[in-house]
Amino acid sequence: MVAIKNGMVVEPNIHDAQVMGIVLDKKGRALVPLEDVDGRALCIVMDGVVRLKTDDFRQDNTLLSLSVSSGESLDISDVADAYGVSNANQDFLPQAMQRLASESFMVVRASPSYGCSMVCICQDLKVLECSLSDLIDS
Q1: FRET pair for 129, CA 20 to 30 Å: which of 47, 57, 91, 138?
Q2: Strand residues in 17-60 grouped as ranges (E)
Q3: What is the 8-class DSSP label of residue 17?
Q4: Collapsing DSSP states into helix, strand and coil, what is residue 128?
Q5: Burial of 99 by CB count in 10 Å (0-12 exposed, 13-18 middle, 19+ buried)?
């Protein structure tokens, strides 16, 4: 279960978790295996992915936070970043924002303490206590 408060994932606690990799499958799902500070295996699961952008993936990626916006609270900067366009793009962004909000998409942003940053436009988010191998075939 994911608990979100003020647009931030607060449960499970992923602060300072290590990002172990990123897997995209043919089902439109992105899996991000983590190891939290207590050594627990967690996995961020994003279903219905329509756009995913990651930058600066390297050894020892450490998460600072995971934020989520949806509906009227969609963050235009995150949407622009996911699509690789300027925040000032008035030809594309207004229509994209309206479509994403009306079709119940969300934007998930992983902010790093070190290493990988990520922005994903998807339909569902889960953070599960399990290893990546538990999810590969499901």
Answers
A1: 57
A2: 18-19, 23-24, 29-35, 41-47, 51-55
A3: P
A4: strand
A5: exposed
pLDDT of residue 31: 94
63 vs 65: CA distance, rounded Å: 6
Dihedral sign (CA 2, 10, 36, 69):
positive
Containing domain of residue 94, as a range?
3-130
Residue range 33-81, pLDDT digits in tens: 999 999 999 999 999 999 999 999 888 899 999 999 999 899 999 999 9
Task: Report pTM.
Answer: 0.90
* Element containing residue 119 per DSSP (H, E): strand 117-122
What residue has token string 């967690």?
42
Output the pLDDT for position 70.
93
* 136: in domain: no
In sequence order, what are the residues at sequence separation of 6 or more whose Cβ sits closer than 8 angstroms to the Cβ of residue 12? 2, 36, 42, 127, 129
